[in-house]
Amino acid sequence: MSQKRNISEEDIQLKARMLSEGVNMSDMDLLRAFKENSQYGLRPFVLDESGMQVAFTPNKYSRLTMTLDGKKATVSDSGNILGVGKLMEFPAWLDEPLSNGEPALSSINYYSPNVINLQMNNTCYNWKKGRQCRYCSLFAQNAVEFTHEKRLELAKLRAETVKIAIDNGWHGVFIIGGGQLSPHRRTEILDRMEIFIEPIREAIGEEAFSKNPRVINNYPPKDLSEMEKWKERGISGTSFDVEIMDPAFFAAICPGKVAYAPHEFWLESQNASTEIFEWTTTGIVIGLEPMEGLLKGLENRLMNGVLPLTFSWLPAPGSTFEKHRPPNAEWILEYANKAADFFVKHATQEMLDQITGKSDNPIFGGHQPYPPINIVGDFVKLRLLNEGKK
Amino acid sequence: MAEKEIVTAEDVYAKARIFSEGAVIEGLELPPFKNGIDASVKTGAQKDQDRAQERLNPDQIEGIWKMTSKVLEASEKESKPASAMRMTFDGSRLKTFVHASKFSRLTLTQDGDRVTVTDGDGVVVTGYVPKRFDWLDQKVSNGLPVATFLPGMSREIINIIFYLSCNNYNSGRGCRYCNLFANPLSKVTGKFPMDIQKSWAKYQAEAVKIAIDNGWNGFLALSGGALPPSLRKNYLDFISISLDAVRDAVGEKKFAELDIIYNHYPPENLEEMSEWKEFGIKRTTINTEVVNPAYFAAICPGKVRYKPHEYWKEAQEMSVKVFGPYTNTTGNILFGIEPMSLLLEGIEERLSKGVMPRPVILSIAPNSEYWGFHPPTADWIWEATDRMAEIYLKYIDFDDEGAKAASIPTLIVFDMIRQKLQEKG
């Protein structure tokens, strides 16, 4: 499942086009096949030669088309084959039944070979207030908050799932996230983390627990020293996702986040996290703000020891930006090319190993996180590969 | 008697697709898709501009106009058709721009002035390229063509550019989608030399006279780049230079008939708008560009630095008092940058105050900061336009004056309004 093989420029170009243009999937059987077992949108396409994973959206007006022959998927443009691969396959253990009779996959929010996402809460205060991040669809429809009892029940089932995962050789990071808590619930964040973390620790034992980091992926505490308590309670790192690098665009795209704290505070909280935790990352959505500000911000984060995880924006159904379109493939490539420069210039070796999927140990289990929507990692990998050849 | 121009839903949807997706324009070569990049950003015309920048000498004004003319000519040959080719649909006579896109499924083929847009084997729409005005090649008194002094002119509008530089663009705070001042002339100096401006006004006025003498009959939009803070108090002086030149060129009687629109920043003192009528101004278009204050700060950092979003809206409301509502007080809004819910809410709010927003479909200009970004999908454009049209019909009686819903290449809402009105009979 991991990307161990070499990638080529053509692979990256195809990925950029699929991220930008989506794929015409008028064949309903094809669409159904890609939707099967997928938690968000479509199952990624995995290129045969490089193992590169590519996320995409169905787009009836895309010039790119896909055919499926058994497990073999082919992407073409006007009859020219651009890539051959297959649907991303899920490990069989995700179908193993839990104590409630449901499959393991049903208890978690997102699975990948290197990430299991566990949400602490099932609603987002920003959505309730109409201040949701414009690209986000996570809590768009019929979201009902977990009761305390539901949380305890879910924590038990998730611990069972994680045990199954570990027993089957899964190695990665637990992302503990969720929507923005309402103001009167924000003090409960530590307790909520613990509800989900402790059963996992008990289920898999201290040794396995220590090998698979737990990262808080939510809002920074107003009192940044609280992160010390988080560490004491078993948290290994943070991902306070600032999403957007230009403060003015941050206010426009993430009105709920800016209502909580200004852009500068989010950056400060990341800087503070680097002092406390071994790993500090931030999610950045690319394709929503002009490139210059984006790259400037990216470089700033790297120079402060924060690993930017840059994700290509795919307009999600249910989000405010549904039916908007990402930038064109050339923009995506130009961005990724320039971002790769900054990574090569500023990132630590550990970060580079991380982003290129070479590392065997630390966070993200030695894989680049969320590979289908991350193209910078592919570019860095290609760059290092080319330099090595020189 | 002219055939009635029936606008169908298919026509409007075709325009939405063309704007959203652009087209592969047969015969037009774009830089190949490759990894190296910059190929997409710097066209040959832009490289010409870069070279021109190095050679500009503010003391040799006529030399500047010669160089400008050459750059425009090169740009017209290369990047202009690539970034926006104008066409008119058969039947409905809807007007649109077709932007070149190497990744589009739509293909545009041209045979003489006939144009066909296809999607695979299916014809999406046929039409024609409007004939270019011959008089654009006539010469003003320095021997250069009229086209040099009327950049961006159309059948509907001639821009009277009263300040040739944009302080926002020059200071890195240009509106993100705009490339109007991404040219060497704009960057000549922090304060644009008055001699150059006066010379421009003279030739621009001569060009306007030639246009009018040849039957051109549209709006004169008083526009230009953002003035540096130290010159803002002098904005009426700059306007006077340009308008006096036009008055001298066309004569007092004709000047009084001209439909002059103020299309620039609101003044520091809104009461001054009452004095604008004395200059011959009959309407205003004060562009907030977006309806949401947070977007205003993000998309138009230079405009917000001058005054907050709320002030720009107040200026529009003052214009309603001074010049009258709706067609006399308009304001451009970029259609496709903001979320639909915010956009519709903002449009209705403006209409309720007597201001008629002109939702200009987002088209990203080469060399702007948003170059490479896309407008939303045709489905989004269709849904937003449909809902917007209903809001406009709630506030404005379009039956009263059909011209209010005339087709404009960069706008789609008025096409939808016409379609709805025709459907209702």
- The total count of strands of chain A amounts to 12
* Intertermini distance of chain A: 29 Å
Helix fraction bin of chain B: 40-55%
Percentage of residues in DSSP E strands of chain B: 15-25%
The domain tally of chain A reads 2
Number of helices of chain B: 16
CATH architecture of the largest domain in chain A: Alpha-Beta Barrel
CATH class categorisation of the largest domain in chain A: Alpha Beta
Biggest sheet of chain A: strands, sense, closure? 7 strands, mixed
Quick structural overview:
The complex is a heterodimer of chains A (390) and B (425). Chain A is an alpha/beta fold and 390 residues long.
Description of the structure:
The complex is a heterodimer of chains A (390) and B (425). Chain A is globular, with a radius of gyration of 20 Å. In chain A, the strands form 2 sheets. Chain A has a 7-stranded mixed β-sheet. A 5-stranded antiparallel β-sheet of chain A has the order 2-1-5-4-3, with helices on one face. The longest helix of chain A has 23 residues, at 189-211. Chain A is of the alpha/beta class and 390 residues long. In chain A, helix 10 packs parallel to helix 11 (329-346). Chain A contains 13 helices and 12 strands. Chain A has 2 domains: 9-87, no CATH class; 94-386, TIM Barrel (Alpha-Beta Barrel), CATH 3.20.20.70. Chain B has 425 residues and is an alpha/beta fold. Chain B is 40% helix and 16% strand. Chain B has helices at 9-21, 44-55, 61-77, 79-83, 146-149, 167-170, 194-213, 235-250, 252-257, 273-276, 293-299, 301-306, 309-323, 340-352, 378-395, 413-424, and strands at 24-25, 85-89, 95-98, 106-111, 114-119, 122-128, 157-163, 219-224, 259-262, 281-285, 326-335, 355-361. In chain B, strands 1-4-5-6-2-3 form a 6-stranded mixed β-sheet. The radius of gyration of chain B is 21 Å and the shape is globular.
